[in-house]
Design goal:
about 75% helix; about 425 residues; globular
Amino acid sequence: MALAIEFVDELADGTKGAALPLIRADLGLSYAQVGLLIAVPLLVGSLIELPMGLIAGDGRVRHRLVLAGGAVLVASLVATAAARSATVLLVALIAFFPASGAFVSLTQAALVDRARGRQQQRMAAWNLAGSVGAVGGPLLLAGVLAAGGSWRSAYLLLAAAAGAALAVAVLAAPSRQPAPGDSSAITAPDSDAAPDGNPAPDSNAAPESEAAGGGSGGKPTSVREALNALRRRDVARWVVLLEISDLLLDVLTGYIGIYLVDVAGASPADAAVGVAVRLGAGLAGDALFVVISSRVSGLTALRVSAIMACALYPAFLLVGWFPAKLAILAVLSMATACWYPVIQAGLYTTLPGRSGIAVFLSSAAAMIGAVGPLAVGFIAQRAGLSLALAVLAAAPVAVLAALPGAAWRTVRKVKR
């Protein structure tokens, strides 16, 4: 059920990326409005999503929030299909994001709670399911358009798919989550080294007994506990990396279709192909990482891919020949496929048994991260989309800078 929910959520996201040029033309949106449509729902949604991780300590409460989020998500997709103005579309998207947070993020947290010591592998499988959905989004839109429908018809189909996932969730009973100190609880990973290759918590990390208290299986967590966790260097590092990496993941994906039309001179149909290449290559990278995630250190994969992105992304922006641009985009998408599962697993690993805090901190960071797509939109409005996306070239450099010092030793080895 968990992977099906992630599949439907990313199916909607993939459809939106491919449909954005059509939506912009249909509603007459400016670059600034496009930036608002991407950033404001993320900002407001993250604000609403903030308390979810803290109050969802009990399995029944979590399950109720998942179901409520699924119902709102279905309604928001129907409202998007019916939108006739930028304002209505904005309201529908604002409703979608917190609904997705409840329906998807809490499901992810429950999935990881049952995989102590194998967070990276679970996140790799989760990411693969999402990528399949993301690739299916443009294909769904292409099929609807070929059948004589519109982007609105595609959103109605998405609402139907989300309704089916919600029906499955309704039938699924909430699993029992072991309370702290419960003898049936899964043993936490060794504190010296995480088996998935993620770094062990810093020496100033909270003791295991303290870290386990009030987790997802116990009482709701307070904001103070979450902020105390954020003071730990290892936790703060992964939270920062989540938002830095997203600039070259979801933010770039959101603008790919419009960039290929307005800057690269592609037709809307070719732009849809470009979005499909972006998502298809990401899917291939996700599948590859699922295979190697148990054999390769997550940090090593993250370092090497960030180094590759430092060269690939500028090349993607500078190359003029459209087939070559798509080829570079494909390699870039494969190279960065490991970013989200490694970073998100790293956050969960540093907070064993505290998935609610991880959800809270991710939502709080996403509020700050919402500035990214908003800034891209406003820079594009004033200076052009080409320059606005060029700013994102700083993202892989920042990822390397935020990693532990060993990242720079990897850079030196690659240069040699």
